[in-house]
Every structure is written in structure tokens, then in C-alpha cells.
């Protein structure tokens, strides 16, 4: 571990720290506005060195026995768990997440993902196909032809991650990529890359060969652009905004790179008219997680609540009470529920959306004013009612503690509103009739649907429809995402 966090980190390339080509930039604590540490600013030569290191390591790692790969990933999980007391304070400082979110939902999921894909490394990668009699052709003699479909590693994978869950998100990409025999160049979000850099020496200690995992960082867009465009990269796995995702897709398409992209969301929580008190309470708690969970900086958040008109004012009142009950403040205080946003720019963006909603005639029921907390980039939980579904506040991803409430009269209208944004990542249905909710889920253009819960299932395929992304990961689907299918055919 780096002992002095005010010191300047290097890039992690080829199993060692490397001095950056463009110096360093400060990583700022969103709660204190103080410098946590200095991250390396990459030049294109640094990116090239990282990709070359990954390419050099690929042949050896891809041919390593699956059980050996599994053992390395298991050791990574054990080391992450062991180092959690050191990693949690650093993660908390650079992300601004509350201590309870950091300790429960930053490091532990990273541990779980490396452990899960240690098992994944030894999952069967060959699907035998029944032999078939094939008639002779001018190309070849006939006979009984056998075949198999085999998953093969892709090569060098560029993993570009988001700022909200830097370590967990990176682990969710790196673990299945390494399990399949790929090598990795990681490019964390510029706001909080330090724990991702700390992962480099930890993986080396676990026995990963030098060059199989590399990390380059930078505050400028040119770093990610150089990585995506590099001819030595075979696949790009990206989590972030749809705007950046489009640029990555365009660049990757020029050289036919494989892509896996988990992009923005504008989740709809539909509360049907049959919801009883228990279901309404569940819905309010679920929607309220947009206020209370990492200040709404999560792509799967139910940021729109669509409520049957008969229950609309009741749900508005309950959400208003919920939002007002949440303590905003210092994220290291265990009584704090709502911490800061990641940056001043993101706080200003959230405030601009709320101001725009007011100007367009929506009603900001609660929130909308900047909390009297300094320093720090704080935004109060906000509930917006009486918005038109076409307003920006109801169409675009805000990525803050903001919920928009919209009434509907029947299921057809609810489906039209829910499907009426460019996104389709995660929607929710709340009903006293689970069968009815199941049927409604089939009409939602969304990659994921929760019925009466916002809980996730770790083995499900995760990804979005429409502008919310391309491809799926999670569970065994993650192994599929980081591999190519090869058909092997022979004469039986």
C-alpha cells in the first residue's frame, strides 16, 4: 500500500510503478475539498506502454491452467478483505460516500466479485454439439461430423470505470476478464482513481503475472481516447454516461473492437393502483433510496416514481416525509445518510436541473436549495411533482438525490411514460399482485425489472436496452461477455 496518501502515485504498468508522462493532478475529497492524494496524468506514451505490457503478458496468462487462474483470483479476494481497514478510509475520502456505504458496498462487493470469478475460471467453457451426418460436397467428403462451441479469451481488455463505485465497478470487469484468460488495462474515473491504483500491487502479491493488470489514470479525455483507439486493445468495457459511450462506440467500431457498455439510466418505479399499505411502504423505501443511497449517484436508482392517480398524493406525502427525515452532512459521521456529490460541477448540474424544472412549471415539493454546509459539494434530497413527462427533469439522468413523481390513470399510460425516455436500464413495479407485476414487466423496455424490491440478484445478466448500453455481464454472463465463441469441427 502507498504509505503517504499525500504523495504522488505512479501508473501501474508491467508490475511496477511508473512515472507519468504529464505529471500529476490532485484528487479532492468531496466533503472537505481537501486534497486526498495526487494521481498520475498520463501521456499517450504511458497508455501505449500499458497496452504493450498487457499484450506481452497475454500469451502466458491466457495459457495458464484455469485452476491456477482461479487460485490467483481467490488470493486477490482474500487480500482485499485483509486490506479493507486501509482501503475503506481512502475510498471514503476520494468518493465522498458515507462511511456506511463505503464499508458495506465498496470493498465487500469487490471481494465477492473476485471470489465469484475464481469459481468462474473453472466453469466449463466448452459446449459439445451432437454429431451430425453431413453429405459430401465439392468442398469435402461426407461423413459424421462432430463439433463444439468453445469460449476463448479476447485478448487485451480496456476497462474504463465510473466514479460512483470505483473499486467494486473495476472488480466487476477485471475479475471475469482475468478469469477468462484476458489481460487488462484499467482507466479509472479521474475523480477517484487512487484505490484502483492500489489494486495493482495487491494483484501482483496475489501471484498475477506482471503486465496482466495495468492502471493508467488522467484528468483529460485524451487518456481514455488513446486507450480506446489503441490497436493493441481487443475489447473495451465501459461504465459511464451515454454521451461518452457513444464516442467509445464510434472509436471502437473503426477497428471492430468488442464493446461492453453499461450506460445511463432513468429508472421508473411504477406503483399500481392495487398497492396496499405494505406495498406502498416498500415502494416509498425503494424510491427513497435515490435520496439516501450514495446521494443518488447510481444508475439503477428509481429516479422516477409513476403512481396511480388514486395513490399519487399519498405517495407524495410519504416521500416528502422520508426526504425531510434524512440527515445531510459529514460522510464519516455514522448518523449521516446523505453525503456530498462527487464534485462542485456535479452539484451545480443537479441544481440546474431543479431550477429548470421550476421554470417549466413543475413543483419542487422538498429540496432544491443548497444545504448550509461548508466545505463540501452537498445537495439536499429533492422531490419534484407535477412535471410533464417530456421535461428534462423527467427525461435525462440527473445523477443526484432527485426524484420526479408522475401520475397515471391506467397501465397503458404507465408503460408509455416508463418507456418514454431514451434509457432502459432498471425499472420497478410495485403491486399487491405479483402476477400482474410480472405481466407488466414484459411491456417495459428495460434490461432489468424489480418486482416489489430494489434488491439485486448477483447471477442475473445486467445491462440495458436503448441508450442504457450494449451487452450483459454478471454471473456466468460476465464470462460470456469477456470471451469469444470459437466453433471447432472434426470428422467423427
Summarize the structure.
With 492 residues, this protein is α/β, with parallel strands linked by helices. The protein has helices at 44-62, 66-95, 99-105, 107-120, 166-179, 194-205, 221-229, 242-254, 277-292, 312-324, 344-359, 392-395, 411-418, 434-441, 475-481, and strands at 11-13, 16-18, 24-28, 35-40, 126-134, 143-153, 156-160, 183-187, 213-215, 235-239, 258-262, 268-271, 304-308, 363-366, 382-385, 402-408, 426-430, 448-451, 469-470, 483-491.
Overview of the molecule:
It comes from Streptomyces coffeae. Pfam families: Aldedh. Keywords: Oxidoreductase. This is Aldehyde dehydrogenase family protein. With 492 residues, the chain is α/β, with parallel strands linked by helices. It folds into two domains: 11-263 and 468-491, Aldehyde Dehydrogenase, Chain A, domain 1; 268-459, Aldehyde Dehydrogenase, Chain A, domain 2. It has 15 helices and 20 strands. Helix 1 crosses helix 7 (221-229), helix 2 (66-95) packs antiparallel against helix 4 and helix 2 (66-95) packs antiparallel against helix 5. 51% of the residues are buried. Residues 1-6 have low confidence and may be disordered.
Note the main attributes of this structure:
492 residues; alpha/beta; Aldehyde Dehydrogenase, Chain A, domain 1; Aldehyde Dehydrogenase, Chain A, domain 2; 2 domains; 15 helices; 20 strands; 39% helix
Secondary structure: elements and pairs:
Blueprint lengths: L10 E3 L2 E3 L5 E5 L6 E6 L3 H19 L3 H30 L3 H7 L1 H14 L5 E9 L8 E11 L2 E5 L5 H14 L3 E5 L6 H12 L7 E3 L5 H9 L5 E5 L2 H13 L3 E5 L5 E4 L5 H16 L11 E5 L3 H13 L19 H16 L3 E4 L15 E4 L6 H4 L6 E7 L2 H8 L7 E5 L3 H8 L6 E4 L17 E2 L4 H7 L1 E9 L1
Parallel strand pairs: 7-8, 7-10, 8-9, 10-11, 12-13, 12-17, 13-16, 15-16, 17-18
Antiparallel strand pairs: 1-2, 3-4, 5-6, 6-20, 11-19, 14-15
